[in-house]
Amino acid sequence: MKKKINIQSCLYGITFFFITLSGFAQMPIFKRYYISDIPGLGWLADFYITHLMHYMFAGIFMGLVVYSISNFIVLKTGFIQLTRDMIIKIVIFSGLILTGSLMVIKNFSGTPFSNGMVIALDILHILFCMALLFFGVYQLIKRKKELLSG
Asked: Is 104 found in the same domain as 56?
């Protein structure tokens, strides 16, 4: 049985890869562990390139989320059909978008965020990212088990 390729899933996968890569590049791990010394990967150590890339893919990610929400509302009638996994994703995506948006606002000059608030936003954003990564792995394992048992 051939699976039909979904453009939205491909775009989500590409966006997820690059937003994760650029997010990790915001922390100086690529320079620290000499990954950026590999030919062709030097741009991973450039904060401004990865920062702009993260913002660009975050915009695409938010567009995909809005598109998915509007698609769900138009094609499905009511919220009765929400599954547990969908609710978990909604919570994680909402947390990522909220903390990410507040971090963008924090970068404007003259924003009255305290140091504690900035640290809390950073930690929450990273926790939501980790939750999304772990939930994605959980869903892959669950899908493999369903394919093997079914």
From this structure: no
How deeply is 141 buried, as exposed, middle or buried, from its count of CB atoms within 10 A (0-12, 13-18, 19+)?
Answer: exposed
CA distance 135 to 114: 31
State whether residue 107 is helix, strand or coil: coil
pLDDT tens by residue, 73-126: 777 655 567 788 988 999 999 999 999 999 999 988 888 889 999 999 999 999
User: Which residues form the domain of 49?
Assistant: 1-78
Q: pLDDT tens digit string along 26-81?
A: 888 898 898 989 999 999 999 999 999 999 999 999 999 998 888 877 776 555 67
Residue ending a domain, among 78, 102, 127, is 78
Q: Are residues 89 and 101 in the same domain?
A: yes
Q: Which of 78, 93, 122 is the last residue of a domain?
A: 78
What's the pLDDT at 39?
Answer: 93
Q: Could you give the count of Cα atoms lying within 13 Å of 112 in the half-sphere of its Cβ?
A: 0
142 in the same domain as 120: yes
Distance between CA 89 and CA 126 in Å, rounded?
15
SS3 9: helix
